[in-house]
Amino acid sequence: MERLNRNLAAKPVSERLGYLAFVLTACVFAVFFVMPIVWSFANSFKPAAAALADPAALFSKAFSLENYRRLEHVGAGWYVYAGNSVLIAAGTVVLTVLVSVPAGYGFSKFRFPGQSLLFVLIMATMMIPFQSILTPLFLILKVFRLQNNLFGLVLIYVTFQLPFSVFMMRNAFDAVPKALIEAARIDGASQATILRRIMLPIALPGVATVAMFAFLNSWNEFLAALIFLSDQNKFTLPIMLVNVSSGIYGIIDWGALQAGIAVTMVPCILLFLLLQRYYVRGLTAGAVK
């Protein structure tokens, strides 16, 4: 803080005012983003009586785990749905990284006929609305007997995650100097060794960014899971939230719903806090050469 104060004191008044305005604006936006999360967590620990007495209150004097206990009786139980979401998200992350890393490396460091056209075609798939191909996807899964199957859902998520992931990894590998590859080749390293021991450690922020996007998209995805899964024991957490909010006779169990939202948010928040440094570096990889 002392160093920051000295730096501000050394700047002109206009720059100091601009910096303070930036900090105040950032704080206001941070409050708007953080408050819904805080409100959801606070309400998930409210007893039903306190929630009915004052629904708008942020905090309550009473503390209860009643809402989380009710989640155990929603369908097969929240832990079953959480396990399904973990399996799907983990499978999506692993397959996305395994495919996008060598693909991005190939597009970045190799030249072959039709390279630009192939890359444009891959990027063009990002412009296809997911809702418009639900029927073909269902028929494909049916042919391979993967309908109502968690692995089939993983394949769908990977398919839609790959264009962005390949783009990110190509940019990450573009930022690595070719001199490193040439030096490794002179030493007799194979392409697999160069990718594993030289390129991957340098492009690790890009890999972390791809993994994070794959996890968040598969963890929070709702429509595909709702359409392609029919067995209640294979549902994911987002589908569980719909069942919680429906309740009996259309009555919404707000306490259990907030508890379900809190359970769903925790892994995303923890993952972002752990990987935020790599996330920012991965997004800017290849932007400046």
From TrEMBL:
Coiled coil: none annotated. GO terms for biological process: transmembrane transport. It is found in: Cell inner membrane; Cell membrane. InterPro entries: MetI-like, MetI-like_sf. The keyword S-adenosyl-L-methionine does not apply. Residues 82-275 form the ABC transmembrane type-1 domain. The keyword Ubl conjugation does not apply. It is a multi-pass membrane protein. The chain crosses the membrane at residues 20-42, 78-105, 117-144, 150-173, 194-215, 259-279. GO terms for cellular component: plasma membrane. PROSITE patterns: ABC_TM1 (PS50928), PROKAR_LIPOPROTEIN (PS51257). Pfam families: BPD_transp_1. Keywords: Cell inner membrane, Cell membrane, Membrane, Plasmid, Transmembrane, Transmembrane helix, Transport. The complex is composed of two ATP-binding proteins (UgpC), two transmembrane proteins (UgpA and UgpE) and a solute-binding protein (UgpB). Part of the ABC transporter complex UgpBAEC involved in sn-glycerol-3-phosphate (G3P) import. Probably responsible for the translocation of the substrate across the membrane. Belongs to the binding-protein-dependent transport system permease family. This is sn-glycerol-3-phosphate transport system permease protein UgpE. It comes from Rhizobium johnstonii (strain DSM 114642 / LMG 32736 / 3841) (Rhizobium leguminosarum bv. viciae). The lineage of its organism: Bacteria, Pseudomonadati, Pseudomonadota, Alphaproteobacteria, Hyphomicrobiales.
